[in-house]
Amino acid sequence: MPVVLLGESSPDLLIAFTIVFRRSGDTVHAAADGAGVLRLAGRVAPDVIVLNLPEDDGPATCRALRAAPATAGTPILLLSAALFPDADDARRSGADDYMTKPLRNADLVRHVHALTNTGEPV
Amino acid sequence: MVGIGMPYVDMTVLENPQRLAAARRARRLLPGLVVPLDAIARLAARATNSPMAIVAVMDVHEEHFVGSFGLPAVLSTGAPMPVAYSVCKYIVSADHPVTSDDMSTDPDLRGHALAVEFGARAFAGVPLRDTADHTVGSLLVVDVVPRAWTDADLELLVEISTLLAGLPDAEEHPGSDPGVLAGLDAAAVLDGVQEAFVAVDAIGAVRGWNPAAQALFGWSGAEVQGRQLDELLLTEAVGQRFRDGLPGLISSTGPQNGWIGQVPIRHRDGHELPVRAVVSTIRGRSGPFVCVFLADLSGQSDAERDAGHQRGFLAALLDSLDAPVAAMDVDGRLQVANRAMRRMHGLPDEATIADLLRAAPAHLRRADGSALPTRQTPLVRALGGEVVADQEILVAVPGRPVRTELANAQPIVAPDGALAGAVVTCVDITGQRRVERFRECQLAVATAVARSGSVDDSAADVTREVAEALRWPHVELWLLDDLTDTMRPAGHHSMLGDDFAGFLARPIQKGLGVSGAAWAAAEPLWVSDVADSAYVCNHATDPWVRMCVRAGLHSMVAAPIPSGGQVRGLLVCFAAGAEHDQTSLTALLTAIGDQLGQFIAQKRSAQLVQEVARGKDDFLSLVGHEIRTPLTVISSYVDMLLAETEADHAAPGDAHAAYEAIARGTTALRGIVDDLLDLTALESGHLQVSLRPADLAYLARRSLQRIRDSADANGVTVTADLPEVLVTTGDPQRLRQVLDNLLSNAVKYSPDGGHIMLALADDEQGVTITVSDTGIGIPPEDRPQLFQRFYRASNARHTAIPGTGLGLCIVRAIVEAHHGTITLDDTPRAGTTITVRLPPRGEG
């Protein structure tokens, strides 16, 4: 089962998503900001990274992950907090996929598994 | 008492025609006697030691005192005396002397008017007879005390009366028969002469005076007897000549030695009249007399006076006209200018033509303000033969407002066709032109403001237009600064020159000075003279007032610019010279102030609308954004809780039902947030549709599938008329959204047993999607708003059908992003038909 690295700025969602991924059988490592994500990324070797960070943190973290050799090829799913996100914006900052909130738990799990080739493509 | 006869009146005697004719002749004749009658009376009084004496001629009902002595003034006027005062009547009736020693003891005389009114107590009188022995009057002496008249008294009176018995005889006259002349009554001859006759003795005293002289000069013979002719009738210069020439005249003899000439004579009432005088010297029994016949020349003068009067009438007529009139003679000399013309040039009514000629040329301007050369003035043009119609002229009198006159001039042509001169009349159209100028000014101000889009940016244009319309040298526009609540100069137009650059550098404080007072009162304020107004504290030292005086500014108006119940600015205008046409100028400035105020108000409300619209978008985004995270938290945990309780299939329990309710609410909320953000993104252009080939038939079938359940639940049947494949150009996801929205709306608003029809069609014009239902329909009055955000038709709002009013809005936004159209079938029948038209493939 894949190792998910979660960067989530909302404490409530951090707990909720951690439970959601664990229940679907994944290993979850979570951080509340970009610095925490970058620290964990070197240690845990994630199969997929899910980021739901503020605008002043999310894209920068995304670019930093791409720049780091360990995570340069790791798929990244961006949960958009932006007003009008589109796929291009997400891709410009190096993400592979994006989802806008609000979202359903099942959809989130489906997108993550698709990125790790462990589920149906979305 | 001598007692010769009792006093009685014999009318037969008095009325005797021969006596009467003699008496009347005597009355004319006696004043002409060389012996003054008053002297006769005085002689009689002295001789008899009486205080009063009268020489009287008796008519029938009146008595004439032709000479008197010692009489009270009222009795010596020369006017005829009523018979009540007459004593003469007794003497004439008796035709011999009559006396009364004491009138108060005589029953017939004690009530006599002379006794009662003038205190006469005694009298003695003797008849006067003419040469034909007719009794014409009496010589009478009167005393105020009782007298015992003696025979000696009466003899003296008779003796004196004989002095009057004869008349001066006609002198021998060459060319006349002396016999004839001797038979003539000289006095009667003179009476019959129309010319005035005056005889003067050697010392220049009047001795003869005929009725014509009385008529001509106003003096009676009695009045002039013995008075100096020169003092009586002659002006000082002529009088001197008369005195100088008199000795020569007296010493010469005969008409040949006389003198004929025209002299002015002074009438009794003081006016002078010209007479032709024929002067000759005649030697009579009592010595030489200068005899003068005077012919009235005032008939001739009357004609002259008439002409003068006529000129006066014409002048008065012209002066009474309001229109200025002037005329030149053929030589270009100004001959006539009426009062209105003098006033037009600022001259007083009594100004002369010369005054006008001095002043006028400098006042005349062309309509454009440039000086008007003399050769182009209407009068001079008309003198050149031209008929000048409606030449517009400005009359600029220094220190007074410029007037606009419309001049009409034409040549004056004599009856023989020759040019005799030219005449000009003017009409003052200052008010009319001003009204036109003001109207143009308002239009120009509106145009300037509209073009620049702001009052601030058009301040220079606005002040220039106002200054030109008013013809005032300095106009300022001040606008309110909202933040500091102070007035700041926005722009100005000034002809004052560089010396007055600091004129605007003054603060306008609310309630202070003219502008500040207008601001505080929100009313236009007019001050006729700034330097003399109550709004300035210290006229002598205030540097700004001194600048006004130096710039020659007098009148000042401050008009507020009202907007939204507040003064948003001030229009402050200054006039050179004192303006007095307060009403129309204030009306103009008020109108322009209101105009600017309205524009400011419009501008503000437009800004407000824009801000509100932008605010709404921002608000929607913010709300949408901020709702998303908590919504995700809720749905995330509800999903987990549902999954846990679902596991217990045997007994789902209350908790599971509750989680399901929370999940439905969350889903509905998420739908609204999705729709809102979708719509905001679409309308703000943040979200583009990505066009590619899309099979509309496939999308429609998917959409029908999705709606089937809710349609069945509502008891609504759905039929479709779809081709197998209909490929068009579009964003498949968005087109699906259109189909979903249209179908779900139709199901939502169709009653149980209703019917929905979906049809797709394709031709050269493009693709048509039609969704018809048999629902509640859309009231006509709601149709225009149907595609607005949050708008729900009135009949939908009033039913329990839930909805946000966003669906159709999103549909329209998507259709328009595809360059398509959406229309509502407005045939009045139950239900609704919505038609979406998309461009042909490849053109979207």
UniProtKB/TrEMBL annotation, chain A:
Keyword set, alphabetical order: Phosphoprotein
Keyword Phosphoprotein: yes
Highest taxon listed in the record's lineage: Bacteria
One Pfam family linked to the record: Response_reg
Any one of the GO BP annotations: phosphorelay signal transduction system
Location of the Response regulatory domain: 3-116
Residue ranges of coiled coil: none
Name of the protein in its database record: Response regulatory domain-containing protein
Organism expressing this protein natively: Paractinoplanes toevensis
Lineage of the organism: Bacteria, Bacillati, Actinomycetota, Actinomycetes, Micromonosporales
Automatic annotation (TrEMBL), chain B:
GO molecular function, one term: phosphorelay sensor kinase activity
Record keywords, A-Z: Kinase, Phosphoprotein, Transferase, Two-component regulatory system
Any Pfam family hit: PAS
Protein's UniProt keywords contain Cell cycle: no
Domain Histidine kinase: 622-842
Compartments (UniProt record): Cell membrane
Enzyme Commission number(s): 2.7.13.3
GO cellular component terms, A-Z: plasma membrane
Matching InterPro entries: GAF, GAF-like_dom_sf, HATPase_C_sf, HATPase_dom, His_kinase_dom, HisK_dim/P_dom, HisK_dim/P_sf, PAS
Domain PAS residues, every copy: 189-236, 310-353
Key word Kinase present: yes
GO BP annotation list: regulation of DNA-templated transcription
PROSITE patterns named in the record: HIS_KIN (PS50109), PAS (PS50112)
Catalytic activity: ATP + protein L-histidine = ADP + protein N-phospho-L-histidine
Name under which the protein is recorded: histidine kinase
Organism: Paractinoplanes toevensis
